[in-house]
Design goal:
The chain is mainly α and about 325 residues long. It is built from 9 helices and 3 strands. The protein has a 3-stranded mixed beta sheet. Strand 1 and strand 2 form a beta hairpin. It starts with a helix and ends in a 16-residue tail after the last helix. Its main location: membrane.
Length: about 325
Amino acid sequence: MQINQNKLKQRLILLSFVASVLLTGLKFFAYYITSSNAILSDALESIINVIASGFAFYSIYLSAQPKDRNHPYGHGKVEFFSAGFEGALIVIAALFIVIEAIKRLAEPAPIQNLAEGSIFIAFTILVNTAIGYKLLSEGKKVNSLALVADGRHLMSDSVSSLVLVLSVGLIILTGYTWIDSAASLLFGIFLTYNGSQLVSKSVAGLMDASDENLLDTVVKTLKANKKPDWIDVHNLRVQQYGSDMHIDCHVTMPYYWELQKVHETIHNFEDILKGSFVGETEIFVHADPCLYQCCYFCRIPDCPVRQHEFVQDIEWDAANLTKNEKLYHEAKINIQE
C-alpha cells in the first residue's frame, strides 16, 4: 500500500514537472508576440514552477526511502524543506515581478497582439487548473505537503493567469496600456503572499509545530473507540512527516494486570489508530499503572481493587490529552482523602 502511494506521488509530480516545462515555453512565446509585461511576469513565475516541481520530485523520491541508521524517523521531513524551498522561490520571483512592474509603470512600452497571446495563456489556465486540482486532492489523501504545495502553486498560477487574461481584455477595450503593468504589480503582491504562506508552513513543520487539525483527528478517533480499559490517555503528541505519521502517548491501565494483557491492550490501541490513517503510522505507547484517584472516572466493571465508586467521565479533548499528567488532575471531583 505504502509503495503504491509513493509511486502515485512520483507520477503526479513528474506530470507536474513535464507540464510546467511545456507551459512555461508557451507563456514565453506569448510574451514574444505581445511584449506584455504582465505576460512576462506570468512566464517568469512559471520558471519557478519548473524548478519547484523538479525539487518536489526529488523530495518525494527521498521521503519514500526506508528508515536507516542516520534517519531513524525516516526521510519524510524533506517534504517540508521542499515546500519551503518552493515558497522562497515564489517570493524571490514575486519581488522581481513587482520591481519590473514599477519600472514599466514609470516608462510605458508598446504592447501588441494581445488577443493572440491571451489564447495561449487561456490554454495554460486549463492545464494548470486540472493538474493543480489533481495534485491537491491526491496530496491531501496521502498527506503529502510537497504535492499539496505544488498543487496550490499551480492553482494560484491559474488564478493569476485568469486575472492576466481579464486585464488584457480591459486593455483591448479601453486602450489603457498601464493596466498591463498594474496587473503585473498585483500579481507580484499575490505571489508574495502565497510564497510566504508556504515558507511559514514549512518552517512550522521543520520545527515540529503542532498540527491542530491532525491532533483533533487523533483525539476524535480515540473518543469514538474509547475502551473501559483505557482508563486515561495523556502526554499525546502527533507529528506528520511526509506520508508517515508518528504518535506517542501514555495510556493508564490497571496496575494489577499481567504484562501479556497490557501488551494486548496496547496492540489493540495501536491498531485502532493505524486503521484511521492512510500511510505508515508509527506509534509509541508508554503504559502507566492506575492510581486510586482514577477510580472516580474509571469504567472497568467488577474491578477487584476499586476504592471509590465511578462518579463521572473526564472530557477527552486536545487540551487534556496533550498534558503530561494523568487526567484526574483535571477532574471536577471533590476527592475525600
